[in-house]
Amino acid sequence: MVAKITTGNNLYGALAYNQEKVDKEKGKVLATHIVREPMDGIFNVAATAEDLQRWMPSHFRCEKPVIHISLNPDIKDNLTDEQLSEVAAKYMDRMGWGSQPYIVFKHSDIEREHIHIVSVQVSPDGKKINDKLRNERSVAITEELEKEYGLHPAKGQKRSDEWQFTPVDYTKGNLKKQIGAVVKPAASMYRFQTLGEFRALLTLYNIGIEEVRGERGGKSYRGLLYTALDADGKQAEATPLKSSLFSKSVGFNVLEKQMERSGAKIEKNKNKEHLRHRVAEAFLDAPTEKQLRENLRTFHVDLYLRRNDTGRITGVTFIDHEKRCVLNGSRLGKEYSANALNERYPEAMQKSGADLHTLSGEADRRQISTVNKQKKRPKGRSI
């Protein structure tokens, strides 16, 4: 069982997110603790938020009083609603939040049923509940619960499911070996439907990809060049390498067929629904682009943004490393498109060129390997 903990200050948003699942008959309220239940059994977001807020004094110093937890059993686990409620109560008690008011929701919008818990981490005296070593304790507690309920263990399984590549460092030479060690397994392991989506994935590892067209012997041809990117996301001073130097599997023809098949696989495996669920949850308490990226990374998702020289976002791509799926934001819905993110995060367009580079640099490169260094956002590449 995997636990995800996020904190924020938008109590109404956390409750509304879960209530939306209930309204769409994709979830239900499973249990409550020190929260008044309505006579008709129909919870109201505003009333529930008011009830939770009433627990806290009017003045407190905690910047992020709201806690939003998801507990995710393995897809092979089959727990009853009563058992899920018990798991939620035991988890909250052992984490030190058992005396706080909370509400437990069960979600069934994806194949793996799971629960969400919304609570507050400020006690009636205005002090924040001690959360020292929160993540370490959470892992230990979920392992205890796995044993108690005979659940499939998550420890180790998650690590084996996540493939880690070493980002390319053009200063070390031997680019053929470095690039090949990334592009070949990445092409076979991830699903993507456009060359731009594949480009977004490779950019995380300091690799660029360009399509070339020409004519040879009276016949037209299309090919791919793989390049190393420098710290600014620009093509490094190194010779581009033809895809044929690696294998046919990363050439244009094979990738084109693979991209056609990926659409069916994404639909069959419900990858879009899974990723949309994760992204929607990450947006809950994300007043800034930086916070959004941090929230997404708790779900093993990276965000790739392409911006023009004015700072306006012109492309959005989400990279789900858990399901190994790459999707443009517009595929998930208009609320995750470039226009929507521009409206949500307009501050970037107000920055100068230098400020913009600094703002986006750290966030756009995932720290997938311990040898990976902080990189800056690539510019001028189509996605």
TrEMBL record:
Transmembrane annotation, as ranges: none
InterPro entries, per the entry: Endonuclease_MobA/VirD2 (IPR005094)
Composition bias, Basic residues: 373-383
Annotated region described as Disordered, given as residue ranges: 351-383
Pfam family, one: Relaxase
Ranges for domain MobA/VirD2-like nuclease: 17-151
UniProt-recorded name of the protein: Relaxase/mobilization nuclease-like protein
Species of the source: Sunxiuqinia elliptica
